[in-house]
Design a protein that fits this description.
Length: 270
């Protein structure tokens, strides 16, 4: 089956207002047989969005409408494509209990979900590491080095895998090398191989999946998939399922990076 497991929607405040139907019709045209709408879930109760426009996620009061619209579309398109109702849930260090409460309340409504790290904690402050090159540069200054930012990211990612988020914890880890989004402007010579292999072992032990995300191909300062090919190959050796995700925030981004992914050794390793 041809699946896109990571698609955003008109409910995304930092995306476009392209309609659900436009995403679905385009996905059918591209030959997908299954798609998952995984809009950014409301941030945990008590957490203040650090982005300038505070537009990282949908609002809690929008959730019921979001679910209703997707469930209606499931019925309309049931003979053409499988549609999953999902969310991309942020793991934010220090807000595990609130995230667990949210998932306990809404998790039964989900067919699919992604668990991602966008916000990093440093002392008592947080920052969104993929918001912009300027914010990322400020993080480097605050952390003392680029290497320290990477170390904190992979440490937080590992914590997300081990975190107790309850019965409805997402089973797929989102764009696990997102920290490399601006790597062409802030090049890192160390490949963090040992940290990444440790993360893959934790994913394997937890019987989790990996989001094989094509969005990085389209980012001018990244130019590679999340994760890159060598990580996908290591994941395949461990029999970790890699699920393609366009991470599309507008219709024209559907299938971004897909060719690079299907040409990788992962799909030939078995």
């Amino acid at each position: 089956m041809k699946k896109d497991g990571h698609i955003h929607t008109p409910f995304c405040p930092h995306g476009t207002k392209d309609a659900f139907e436009e995403y679905i019709e385009k996905a059918i045209q591209l030959g997908f047989s299954e798609i998952s709408f995984t809009e950014h879930a409301p941030l945990p109760e008590g957490f203040v969005d650090t982005t300038p426009n505070q537009d990282s996620s949908m609002k809690l009061e929008e959730l019921d409408t979001y679910f209703e619209q997707i469930n209606q579309l499931k019925l309309i398109y049931e003979d053409k494509i499988r549609i999953n109702c999902g969310l991309e849930v942020d793991y934010i260090e220090g807000f595990e209990a609130q995230t667990k409460d949210f998932l306990n309340h809404y998790g039964s409504k989900l067919d699919d979900a992604v668990l991602s790290v966008h916000f990093l904690k440093h002392e008592d402050t947080y920052a969104c590491l993929d918001y912009s090159p300027n914010v990322f540069e400020q993080m480097i200054e605050k952390y003392g080095s680029l290497e320290n930012v990477y170390e904190n990211y992979f440490r937080t990612l590992l914590k997300s895998i081990h975190a107790d988020l309850g019965l409805f914890k997402p089973r797929r880890i989102g764009h696990m090398t997102l920290v490399k989004k601006f790597q062409k402007k802030f090049p890192m010579t160390h490949d963090f191989r040992s940290e990444i292999l440790q993360i893959l072992q934790a994913i394997k032990k937890g019987s989790l999946e990996l989001d094989y995300n094509g969005a990085g191909i389209s980012k001018p300062l990244c130019g590679e998939t999340y994760p890159p090919k060598w990580v996908a190959i290591e994941a395949s050796k461990l029999k970790i399922p890699l699920i393609y995700g366009s991470d599309a925030h507008q219709v024209k981004e559907l299938k971004q990076g897909y060719t690079a992914l299907i040409d990788s050794s992962y799909f030939q390793a078995d």
